[in-house]
Amino acid sequence: MRLEPFPGRAHILIADDFTNSGGTLFGGAAIIRKHCAGASVRVSAYVTHFVCKYSLETVRSFLAKLHSPHPVLDSFFCTDSVAASASWLETEEAALVADGQPLKVNVMPIAPVIAAWIRENPPPALRKPSRRTSFSATALDGWRSAELLLVGAAAGFALARVWAKLRGVVA
User: Fold this and answer.
1) Is the backbone of residue 2 left (phi > 0), alpha (psi -120 to 50) or beta?
2) Which of 58, 68, 159, 167 could form a disulfide with 52 if both were Cys (CB 3.0 to 4.6 A apart)?
C-alpha cells in the first residue's frame, strides 16, 4: 500500500474514545511523524475518556511523554468524564507550565453538555403530567436509548470543539 504524504503545514488530529496509557496515541503520532519526515505538520490527540488506569503515576508518565524533548504529540485534548484522572492531568500540567513548559493539555468539562441535554430532554418521570395517566414502557425505553446516545453526542460535541479550537475558531 502506498501512502500519500500529508500536505505541508497540516494539522492532524488523532481521535479515540479513551486511553489507559497513551500508547496508541503516541504510537500513532510516531507513525505520522515518520511518514511526514521533514514536513511541517502538527499532531494532536483527543480522547473522550482520559482513564489512565485511574493512576496518578500513569498520568505523570503520560505527561512525561507529552513533554519529552522530542515529543510526537504537539497537544492533547480530553473531557473530564473521568474526574479523578482529568483532575490529576490538569494539576500536573499546571505544575509543568509553572516550571516553564508549554501548555499542551486542554481538559473540557462535559457536565454543561449533559445538563443542557437533560434540560431539553427530561426523563418521563420529571415531565409535566399530561392528560394521559401513565407512561408506556416504550416511552421509558426510548428515554433510556436517548441516554446512551447522549454519551456519543457529548463526545461528538467535545471533538467538534477541539477541531474548532485547533482551527482557531474558538479560544
Assistant:
1) beta
2) 58
